[in-house]
Design goal:
- By secondary structure, the chain is of the alpha/beta class.
- About 35% of the residues lie in helices and about 15% in strands.
- A 10-stranded mixed beta sheet has the order 7-6-5-4-3-2-1-8-9-10.
- Helix 2 packs parallel to helix 3.
- The chain is globular.
- The model has no long low-confidence stretch (mean pLDDT about 95).
């Protein structure tokens, strides 16, 4: 009964969030350049770039525009590619800080040193997320680099010891590291990392051509059940563990694997501007959900008028999810799992597709 009551409250809360759709997080993909060539990369990033990329001055103008239109409550998450390879990352971050707004980055840790971390802190960084994907063999295989694990491990330790207010590690879970979750958790506890999120690799970008990286339905539920069984244990050791925001599960079980119930906020509270100026709801979205370009469109108008498909989800009724008994609560799950509005999602936690 308690879960039913809380579920109803959560449903009301989600509807209010969708109605108000206040922009709270804006992802800035400042480059597609990367110092790794990961097997699962959803953006297909590399050491060379084929797309045109916005100049630093353009990013600074975007930041000013967002402050003027949406206020200082919007936080920026700087991504790539690998943001640490951008020569003016700190300049962009410092500009955000000077505007009394928060910013953070998502990094693979390969270029993270003590001096670079100090430089980020001097520029006012508020949050940092680092990828850590298992033991040496599993991590290096996924990242396709022999020194990736060593650098990531050192990066985790540096971040854990830093004064950055918000910090966590993320793991891309795939069949090779599925049995290493306790090893990963133990390392994060040992270093003092306070939070950890587990993502299931989904078949997008390079991962679409690497089926050995994608867990099947049973393997996915092994991961979810592991979180449910071990979450309280590691919480007592100082490590908060959460399943990613990928998919819906019944509310009672959701409370066992996440601190906050599932809610795909892409287009609701979250938007993204890709390196070429494309506007979308999340950096992982398929091009069929792109909504315009910062180069030709008014971002505020796009935010108000073009994200209806994200917020109302009427189109889901015409897909393979239309007859599902969980449709009202799930609404099709995360947008990044869809390639169009007529297909099934790439994955569903509640049924095998």
């Amino acid at each position: 009964m308690k879960n039913f009551f809380l579920s109803q409250i959560n449903g009301i809360y989600k509807n209010l969030e969708i109605r108000d759709h206040q922009l709270r997080y804006l992802f800035l993909e400042i480059t597609r350049l990367c110092n790794l060539n990961c097997r699962h990369c959803g953006s297909d990033c590399s050491t060379s770039v084929s797309l045109p990329e916005l100049a630093t001055d353009s990013w600074l103008k975007i930041i000013d525009y967002v402050k003027d239109i949406f206020g200082t409550g919007v936080a920026f998450i700087i991504t790539g590619g690998e943001p640490l390879v951008h020569p003016e990352l700190e300049k962009i971050g410092e500009h955000i800080s000077k505007n009394n707004m928060r910013w953070g980055i998502v990094t693979n840790g390969l270029s993270l040193t003590k001096d670079r971390l100090s430089s980020l802190i001097d520029a006012g960084i508020y949050s940092i997320t680092i990828s850590y994907d298992g033991n040496r063999e599993s991590h290096n295989y996924l990242r396709a680099a022999g020194n990736a694990h060593e650098k990531a491990s050192a990066g985790v330790a540096l971040i854990a010891e830093s004064t950055i207010p918000m910090k966590d590690a993320v793991t891309c879970v795939y069949p090779k590291n599925l049995d290493e979750l306790d090893d990963i958790a133990g390392f994060l506890v040992e270093t003092g990392m306070p939070a950890w999120r587990l993502f299931r690799i989904f078949p997008n970008g390079r991962a679409a051509g690497n089926p050995e990286l994608v867990m099947d339905y049973k393997q996915t539920w092994r991961m979810l059940n592991w979180i449910a069984e071990r979450k309280k244990y590691y919480h007592l050791k100082g490590l908060s563990i959460n399943a990613s925001c990928e998919g819906w599960v019944p509310f009672g079980f959701d409370r066992q694997i996440r601190d906050m119930p599932f809610f795909c906020r892409a287009g609701v509270n979250i938007a993204a501007i890709l390196c070429d100026g494309t506007i979308t709801g999340c950096t992982n979205n398929n091009p069929s959900f792109y909504q315009g370009s910062i180069m030709t469109d008014s971002f505020s108008q796009v935010w108000e008028e073009r994200f209806t498909d994200y917020r109302k989800r009427v189109w889901v009724k015409s897909t393979g999810c239309g007859s599902c008994k969980y449709l009202k609560q799930c609404c099709g799950g995360s947008i990044h799992l869809w390639k169009s509005k007529i297909d099934n999602p790439a994955f569903c936690y509640m049924k095998e597709i």
